[in-house]
Each structure stands twice: as C-alpha cells, then as structure tokens.
Amino acid sequence: MPTLIRSGGGIAPLALLLAVLGAAAPRSQAAELATDAGEGAAAERTLASDIKAYFSAPLRWDAGDWAFLAGSVVAVGVAHHYDTQVRTHFLKLQSTPQSSKELQDFAPTAAVLGATWLYAAAIDNADGRREAWNMVEAAGLSSVTVYALKFAVGRQGPDETDNPNRWRKGGRSFPSEHAAAAFAVGAVLAESGGDDYRWLRRLLGYGLGAGSAYLRLKHNAHWLSDTVAGAALGGATARFVLNRSEVDRVARLGIEPVPGGALLTYTRQLP
Fold first, then answer.
1. SS3 letters for 30-80?
2. Residue 136 neighbours by CB under 8 Å, 6+ apart
C-alpha cells in the first residue's frame, strides 16, 4: 500500500502500454545529471527506490494515513451494501447481456496517458515528460497491488454470480484494475502542473476515474465496491508518486564526469 498524503483481464493492455512508454520514459532528476554511460543505471536506481518505498510505506504511516485507510475501508463497506442494487439497476437498462469490454473501458486511460506523453514530446517539455512518467509509474504500482489483492481475495464478479459475497472462489473482481489505473493516471493529471488551470485538470482527471468506474459497472464487469476500492488505491498511489517526484525535484543526486573518473553531486533547490 502507498504512503497517503492528505491535502482483471485488463493487465494485457496495461502491461503493453507500460512496456512501450517505459522504454521511452523521461529521465528522473538524478538521471538528468548523469553521464550517457550511467544515466540508465541512475534511472533504474530511482525506480527501484520508488518501488521499495511504495511497498514498505505502511511502516512509516502516521495517524492521518491510517485514518485515510480506515475511511477507504468504510467507503468500500458502504458501497458493498449497495452492490446488488447497483448491479440490478444496470441490468435493467440492458436489452441484451453486456460483455466486459476490457479494451474499450481501458481506452480513455490510455488516451490520456498517451496524449500527455505526445504533447510533452512535441513541445520538448521536461515537466510534461515527467508528468507522463508519473502516470506510468502510478498506474504500474497500483496495478501490481491490484493483482496481488485479486489473487488473495478471489472474488467472483457480477458477470459470474448474482451474489456479491462470493469471496475466495477463484474470481478476480476485487478490486477493479480499470478504476485503479484510471484514478492513478487521472489524479496525476489533476494534481500536476501550475494552479492556473487546476479546476480544469481536476475536472478532466477525476472525471476520467469516475467515467472509467461507471463503464465497468455499466458493462457488468465489477461490483460497486470493486470500483470504490480501485479508486482509493489508484488515487493514493498517484499521491505517493507525486510526493516522491516533488522530493526528487527539489533535492537530487547526480553523476558528473571529471578527468580520471566521476563526481557524485548533490543539488537542492532552496525556497
């Protein structure tokens, strides 16, 4: 689980997207100061440190972080109470049974991530490339957690049963990977950049998450509580990544070539 900051079959397209964008990911602040020979290793170390910090984060949570987790659990519990009603509502609107539409429901998230990356590349903007990479990292970290939970929980989805309490039955409904990825990418979009267009960023970013969750419910692919859990996980992971990115921006290590060797540098941005 990620450090929180107060202020299913979809794995194939997500893995493909991460592989494509990961190969062209923007360099971290440490890597930007590295030599050509060492910048790949510097970026690797930065990603590795993020992964380690992400999965060990609960060891450093404070009271506010645990309160956020408790609130998320309560929200999932409330949503679970309405799982059957929400499923029934969407089934009544369907003239024919809906398929899960894995790729179609992932398309909006992929489009936002891809558009962010392409626009940053087109105008050669380092902050934009960093934002796109933060989206990739947030989606990737949250997806790993999602699939670990799916394996552990084994909940059957609404397309497999009409009983929302079919846990440990070999299913992979809880939590929703589409909702997690959408809120991870959307929250990075919402909270990145300057404040001039913050309202628009938040409208688009959180709208992406809410819209993706709605599609999963409409297509009878997830219970309501699956999408709420995915939203909490994806949003919290995005905040974790943004926090790590900000720390990396104001204080960074690097390597500079000097005659006969290399020099380890430390740069800090003062207020």
1. HHHCCCCCCHHHHHHHHHHHHHHHHHCHHHHCCHHHHHHHHHHHHHHHHHH
2. 17, 18, 21, 22, 25, 113
Q: Which residues contact 250 (CB under 8 A, 6 or more apart)?
A: 268, 269
Tokens at 145, concatenated = 């957690």
- Tokens at 215, concatenated: 């599609």
Per the model's pLDDT, the better-predicted residue between 1 and 244 turns out to be 244
pLDDT digits (tens, 9 = 90+) for 51-92: 889 999 889 888 988 999 999 999 999 999 999 999 999 998
Helix (H, G, I), strand (E, B) or coil at 253: strand
- Residue type (1 letter), 193: G
CB < 8 Å & 24+ apart, contacts of 94-97: 94/220, 97/220
Strand-strand pairing, 261-268 and 251-258? antiparallel
Alpha helices in the chain (DSSP H): 11-23, 29-32, 39-55, 63-81, 83-92, 102-122, 126-153, 177-191, 198-218, 224-250
Supply the DSSP string of 1-35, one letter for each residue: -PPP----TTHHHHHHHHHHHHHTPPPPHHHHTS-
Query: Domains plus CATH for the chain?
Result: 11-268 (1.20.144)
Total-model pTM = 0.77
Segment 177-227, tens digit of pLDDT = 999 999 999 999 999 998 999 999 999 999 999 999 999 999 999 999 999
